[in-house]
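**Discrete fold encoding**
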Amino acid sequence: MPTAANKPNAPVAEIVAIAALLLWALLLVFSPAAQSLPAIRRVLLAAAALWHLLSFYLWLVPRWRHHVIEHRGPLLGIGFAFGAAFVGAAADAFRLGAVAAVGLFFLRLLVYSLPFSLPLIMRLPPRPHAVDWGVVTLSLLLPRLPGFDGSWFSWPGEIGGGLLHQGLSPGSLGAPALLATYFYGVRPWTAAPLDLRVRPGDGRTVVAALLLACAGAWMTGIRAGVPWTGSMPETGSWVWLVWLLSGAGLAALFEELAFRGLVQAGLTKRMAQGRKGWSALAAAAAAATIASVLHATYGPFGMSWRAGLGFSLGIGLAFTRSNRYFPAALAHALGLLALPLLASAGLAR
């Protein structure tokens, strides 16, 4: 009989991911904002959204990630490209018609396939390469590209820039899935453990990152007279849940993967190479600053540029010490709740 010491760990990450997907399905299909759509289209759009979300979430769970890599092999990126193009075009066919949907399928297939074709053709080394930065840029711009823009599901109010500036769209859902599939399945060079596994010391890192992020947002934006933008919805439980899950369950995970796990980790790896002591620390701080400026320019979920800069820099400083994606993503998600609550309490005005 196994003892408590050798029992397998509970699949917390898997349970959380599945619960999030089920909640997404309920919100998308039954949200009042989608009731004006025909029922068949709501179901097709929800199915396409869930496929994209699963294509992102599964890489954050080590057991799922290993299973995919072992069973799909080197062509898993091409398989993802075909699947993303197909389910997206099928969801849009109801609105655009069959002929336009076929054209959209081939356009999206071409865009999705290119990032996975280049590493196979060029035989890229296991370190940051210009092609990798091109894929990061493509993922960040995807919600704004023709054929990927528009909105499948939206909600009242302005969110600001960033991934979800137009709600849930083919681009905003395809970007995280593309980025994760490429860097987990094809180009896993980053030194940061990019998963949702809890490790010793993560609690302290989350608290430090959250405090630094909120302090940074207050000092650079809110204290300087820049009001909180894209604040938490004031009415409607459905809208609030969609806002919360979109910010904490998608935008925060994607932004920290892109700007912390890839940009900051990649720049630190390159800039700090061969350095020691204070010189290495200065290089890491410079990488954190560059990543934070890019993050603020892109537009953190629901924040002004200046508040987003301080918020991102606070998380980046904690990441410099821990090199851990999960605490950064969790602190980001908690910050999306903390800052509006501070503003409503009069502490962030």
User: Anything to note?
Assistant: Residues 1-7, 224-230 have pLDDT under 50 and may be disordered. The radius of gyration is 20 Å. Residues 12-185 form one domain.
